[in-house]
Amino acid sequence: MKTAYIFPGQGAQFVGMGQDLYNLNEETKSLFEQANDILGFRITDIMFAGTDEDLKQTKVTQPAIFLHSVILAKALGDQFQPTMVAGHSLGEFSALVAAGALSFEDGLKLVIQRANAMQKACEAQPSTMAAILGLDDETVEKICAQVEDVVVPANYNCPGQLVISGSLEGVDKACALLTEAGAKRALKLNVGGAFHSPLMEPAKVELQAAIEATEIKAPLCPIYQNVDAKPYTDPTQIKTNLIAQLTGAVRWTQTVQHMLADGAEAFVEVGPGNVLQGLVKKVDRTAQTSAALLG
Questions:
Q1: 68, 88, 196, 258: the active-site residue
Q2: Ranges for the Malonyl-CoA:ACP transacylase (MAT) domain (predicted)?
Q3: What is the pLDDT of residues 66-125, one digit of tens each?
Q4: pTM for the full model?
Q5: Which of the residues 89, 94, 127, 167 is marked catalytic?
Q6: Most CB atoms within 10 A, among 97, 239, 257, 261?
């Protein structure tokens, strides 16, 4: 059976996440402890018993979701037999580690650098994102292009759900125009900045050097990358796409469509929550989806 393993991004976190994995065995526990050492603070304390507020900080959220996904994939052992992998935004790093292209340590270090670079870019320029529901992609693209301030389609989550990203003025203007054009909802998101937009350029520059200096090997199966939703196994190309990801859109709808076209028969979500399973179902109601479970 052709199985696609998919890895969630920011927003899937919850207090208590990963506690069961930590207690599972010595190997999983030592990976969490290694992460605490690399990070320089006990992220496990925040994950298992912190507050929602603590967990919501970008510098905590991103490594927390990465750790949950990657350690869960490792804990699956021989059960983890991917034909293909993909991750939503941050999840792309989890997917690369799970598929053997990045080491655990290198993956975590890149995720921390990415989170910090994004945080800085957010603080440098107030910006935001909004979910647009009930409009086709083309209409959203066209209206964003008409707005003079910075606003772009950022996350193609599923048909009829596209997240836009940009300056406060740009997003406000686009939301008003999109509502006029018939959007069911234009909902501002509770995020710190304009992820996957040109406003992340300073973060991209910072992360580019780190990615270029990191060893990436050929993954054990193709990874469908966010920037163009196509499958890759070549390390050089994977790096290029990872760098482009910060300012480029997450083409999740297209990723799922490509995986289905390439024969994916089952989608297994590896990480906290079930957001991606829901999005897969919205692309194809008949798709088989499940969460990665131990045992």
A1: 196
A2: 6-295
A3: 999 999 999 999 999 999 999 999 999 999 999 999 999 999 999 999 999 998 998 898
A4: 0.96
A5: 89
A6: 97
